[in-house]
Amino acid sequence: MNELASKAQLRMSYFRWALFCIAVILLCGTGSALLANSGYGNHWFAALAKPDIMPAGWVFRAVWTALYVLLGLAVALVIDARRARGRGLALTLFIVQLLCNFIWFPLFFAAHELTLSVYLLCAVLVLSLVTAGLFARIRAGAALLMLPYILWLCLAAYLNFEVHRLNPNAETLVAPAINTQI
After folding, report:
1. Domain 12-170 falls under CATH 1.20.1260.100
2. Where do the domains of the chain lie?
3. Which of 139, 119, 169, 162 has the alpha carbon at shortest distance from 79?
């Protein structure tokens, strides 16, 4: 036997990395969204005019969960490619685009910065495309796992732009108070 690790050991290494990456990405993504009070429960967001194709709140939660799982699997594939050329740059860009993704939630939902959030989403999209290209050089499967995320970012950027267009004064809009009857 001239191998350092068996195929089963290599599969378990990937499996452990995948579990770790999925857990970290889900935790950070969910934490960012919760801290920013994102979604339809946000009174400021609920008061905004939205495009006709805006999905229901549960769709966003389901899709982001699935996308974070796919991203965890993708980055685990690249992490597991130990001696791959360009791996460090690919992982660095992945982390940068993911951190920018997590920043989008508080920028949009908490800071009410629609203009900056459109620009940030465009930057995330560009960084994700470059990351997917770098991932493809290392493991084609990792790049394929990023495709749904990239497509969703395109939709998110469009929705963000449309919300901005439909609500030119949204950045100064005050969230309506919660009505309480006594």
Report:
1. yes
2. 12-170
3. 139
Summarised one tens digit per residue, pLDDT across range 78-136 is 999 888 999 999 999 999 999 999 999 999 999 999 999 999 999 999 999 999 999 99
d(CA 26, CA 157): 21
Residue with tokens 């770790």: 20
Tell me the three-class secondary structure of the chain, residue by residue: CCCCCCHHHHHHHHHHHHHHHHHHHHHHHHHHHHHCCCCCCCHHHHCCCCCCCCCCHHHHHHHHHHHHHHHHHHHHHHHHCCCCCCHHHHHHHHHHHHHHHHHHHHHHHHCCCHHHHHHHHHHHHHHHHHHHHHHHHHCHHHHHHHHHHHHHHHHHHHHHHHHHHHCCCHHHCCCCCCCCCC
Q: State the Cα–Cα distance between residues 3 and 161, nearest whole angstrom.
A: 53
Read off the tokens for 134.
């770098």
pLDDT for position 1: 46
Which residues have C-beta within 8 Å of that of residue 96, sequence separation ≥ 6? 127
Q: Helix 57-80 crosses helix 87-105 at what angle (to 10 degrees)?
A: 160
Check: pTM over 0.85? Answer yes or no. Answer: yes
Q: What is the pLDDT of residues 55-85, one digit of tens each?
A: 999 999 999 999 999 999 999 999 998 889 9
